[in-house]
Amino acid sequence: MSRLDLFVNRITAQRDILNLIAARRLLPETGAILEVGLGNGRTYSHLVDSFAGRRIVVFDRAVASHGTSTPPEADLILGEISETGAAYAKGDAAMVHADIGTGYPEKDAKIQAWCRNLRSIC
Ligand SMILES: C[S@@+](CC[C@H](N)C(=O)[O-])C[C@H]1O[C@@H](n2cnc3c(N)ncnc32)[C@H](O)[C@@H]1O
Known about the structure:
Radius of gyration: 14 Å
Number of strands: 4
CATH architecture: 3-Layer(aba) Sandwich
Shape: globular
CATH class: Alpha Beta
Strand content: 5-15%
Order of helices and strands: HEHEEHEH
Distance between the termini: 35 Å
Number of helices: 4
CATH topology: Rossmann fold
Bound molecules: S-adenosylmethionine
Helix content: 40-55%
Structural class: alpha/beta
């Protein structure tokens, strides 16, 4: 499979899952959504549209998002997620969405391992 196909699959899966969660109202009534990996802000923009009124707290190393998709400063937590996620851990998140894969299976296996610890945030 080409890397373009892999990219399209990843992005499509993200959107389909988020749309399903929104359409079926699967989130708890309260709690922030945590977006791990702001990047260009495309997924953040979709979260804002899909979960209107919900606080979305965003983690990344630095801000590199499009101007229309940059969270307010109060909702931005910058630094390495392995450190900032643990420091944030409030136990009140409704959902964690993470898009921080590298495309290298051995690196992504390590990321997935500690991503499971993000459950402690919820
Ligand atoms: C693929 S991009 C996210 C794209 C985003 N979903 C979008 O729609 O534009 C991944 C982002 O995660 C951030 N990232 C990756 N590993 C990280 C880590 N360990 N800690 C904090 N941010 C990280 C990168 O800086 C990058 O901006």
